[in-house]
Amino acid sequence: MKKILVFLMVGLMMASTVAMAQGKKKDSSDKAQASQPVTHPQLAELLVKALGLMRFLPTAPSTQQMFDVLMQNGISPQGGWLLDAVVTKADLSRVVVQALRKEDQVENPN
Questions:
Q1: Which helix (H) or strand (E) holds 13?
Q2: How confident is the model at residue 68, as a pLDDT?
Q3: Rg (CA), the chain
Q4: Nearest to 66 by CA among 79, 78, 82
Q5: Alpha helices in 26-62 (DSSP H)
Q6: Under DSSP, is residue 39 helix (H, G, I), strand (E, B) or coil?
Q7: Within 10 A of 93 (CB to CB), how many other CB atoms are there?
Q8: SS3 content of the chain, % helix, strand, coil (to 5)
Q9: pLDDT of residue 9
Q10: 25-29: Cβ within 8 A, 24+ apart
Q11: Phi, psi of 108 (to 5 degrees)
């Protein structure tokens, strides 16, 4: 499970980096579509699925319900889950550490 989560997060960061690089190569009309950053709701959905928390949610959970189940499990970015926020490296690293339950092994978990 831990390996799956780590690979998922690494893949997410690599995909966003590749999308940004490809966006720079295309013209300006394609650039907006190719380099869409990952948002908090998208990260929450990936985490809920990777951690197997979907079983605790209704069939078609809302974004707020996914945020809630993650917070109940002690997983949230520094400023909390926001509907319109873009995921930063700090947000991603924090939630990965929390999801792996390694807060005590990190010098500065924030």
A1: helix 2-25
A2: 94
A3: 15
A4: 82
A5: 28-34, 40-50
A6: strand
A7: 15
A8: 65, 0, 35
A9: 63
A10: none
A11: -130, 90
Count of residues in the chain: 110
The pTM score is: 0.69
* Neighbouring C-beta atoms of residue 19, cutoff 10 Å: 15
**C-beta separation of 103 from 55 below 8 A:** no
- What's the CA gap between 20 and 35, in Å, rounded? 5
Mean pLDDT by 10 residues, the chain (110 residues): 61 58 51 74 93 91 94 92 92 91 79
How much is the pLDDT for 102? 87
Q: Which amino acid is at 40?
A: H
Q: How far apart, in whole angstroms, are the C-alpha atoms of residue 11 and residue 109?
A: 22
Six-digit token string for 90: 């700090």
